[in-house]
Write a structure and sequence with these properties.
Helix content: under 10%
Number of helices: 1
Strand content: over 45%
Oligomer: single chain
Number of strands: 34
Shape: globular
Length: 394
């Protein structure tokens, strides 16, 4: 080797060696997730392969009842705080990239099919706001006005639908609205009235076809076929508790596409110690499963073989597992006091469960039900894995 060539090679090797010492390790986001720490206004970024927390991100405001959605590349989490804060968190850097206060009281949001839009559903002032995903610039403000006096309703059950549409329910008005945001600055809003009394939450099936709103003010659910919205709303499970006294409801149940396993949907019965089984081909009741308390989350494991259920007070220290073949309880677990949420790993070999009052997250093997690890967390509530980025209704 000639002297000059030797010097160039040595310099290149030195630069590469230096770069190797200082550059952050490359990694994907497919096995990352976020745990909400509601008491401290922080989130933990967790690694579901290594079973550990890798960063804590502060400065997210009031995170009571916080939820989030992911960018389609799984790098950014859009966190909706109860104080109306909308924060864009970079999972790879462990920082808040942007944060705005977009309302006085927010209850969650959704991301559009193409990932370009973030929608927030608000209690106060009631309505839906839509933002650019990259900059959080406000593009549309849709007030949830109803009635002759123009009252504003709390908005619940916001979900993304194919075609850059969002669908949501008006709790006070008993209506379901569908917004087409193909032109986000001039959205088209279709309103479906007489959905039923007090829709409390909504879900869209994983294929994006059916939107269902659970009703708090009466027994039953309202359903809209997104392939044929011109047919209007349909009532299902009408009067499922007819003739029976409803128990006091201490915590409102939650609905999302996780309730569907195979051809059946498993939904909580309001004010009852039951999970209702619904045939998604006929949308008629196919059975009931007695459980330990009033269900809050009824979530199918990704392969649909099991359904996991947690409960409202006073049974909120327990989780029960339903085998969908036999529709029987096959396991009862006690992860800790005040179990608030559950989240399955992408293929469902583990489930992460938050126990708020014991300040911990417990990870279970879903086949053996053995405890895999316990992670400390400050009053943890929602757990959200990046798997959601590629799923409709999450």
């Amino acid at each position: 080797m000639k002297p000059l060539q030797f010097v160039k090679t040595a310099l290149l090797a030195a630069v590469l060696a230096l770069a190797g010492c200082t550059a952050p390790a490359l990694r994907g986001t497919g096995d990352l997730g976020v745990v909400i720490e509601r008491a401290s206004g922080t989130v933990q970024i967790v690694d579901t392969t290594q079973l550990k927390s890798i960063a804590t991100v502060p400065g997210l405001g009031d995170l009571s009842h916080a939820s989030l959605v992911y960018s389609r590349d799984g790098r950014y989490a859009y966190v909706f705080g109860r104080d109306g804060g909308l924060s864009k968190v970079d999972l790879l850097k462990g920082v808040v990239e942007r944060r705005i206060i977009q309302a006085g009281n927010s209850i969650g949001g959704a991301v559009s099919q193409d990932g370009s839009l973030i929608a927030a559903q608000n209690y106060a002032p009631g309505g839906v706001k839509v933002f650019r995903a990259d900059t959080l610039e406000l593009l549309a403000d849709v007030p949830a006005e109803y009635g002759a006096q123009g009252q504003r309703s709390k908005v619940v059950g916001l979900a993304d639908a194919p075609g850059n549409r969002f669908v949501w329910s008006l709790f006070d008005a008993g209506e379901i609205w569908v917004g087409d945001f193909s032109d986000p600055r001039a959205p088209r809003i279709d309103k479906y009235r007489n959905a039923g009394r007090e829709p409390y939450d909504g879900m869209i099936t994983p294929d994006g076809r059916y939107y269902l709103a659970g009703l708090f003010g009466e027994d039953g659910m309202a359903m809209l076929d997104m392939w044929h919205p011109e047919k209007g709303l349909r009532r299902i499970l009408d009067g499922y508790g007819k003739g029976q006294e409803k128990l006091p409801v201490y915590k409102m149940p939650h609905l999302r596409g996780w309730a569907v396993a195979g051809k059946y949907a498993y939904v909580p019965a309001i004010g009852r110690h039951e999970v209702l089984v619904v045939d998604t081909e006929t949308w008629k009741e196919a059975g009931r499963i007695a459980v330990a308390g009033q269900p809050v989350f009824v979530m199918a494991r990704p392969d649909g073989r099991q359904v996991w259920v947690n409960f409202a007070f006073p049974d909120n220290g327990s989780v029960q597992v339903i085998d969908v073949e036999t529709r029987s309880i096959v396991k009862r677990l006690e992860p800790g006091r005040a179990v608030l949420h559950m989240e399955f790993t992408p293929r469902g070999e583990s489930v992460w469960i938050s126990a708020r009052d014991d300040n911990r997250v417990v990870v279970y093997d879903t086949a053996s039900f053995a405890q895999r690890v316990v992670l400390p967390a400050a009053a943890p509530s929602g757990i959200f894995f990046t798997t959601r980025a590629g799923r409709t209704g999450f």
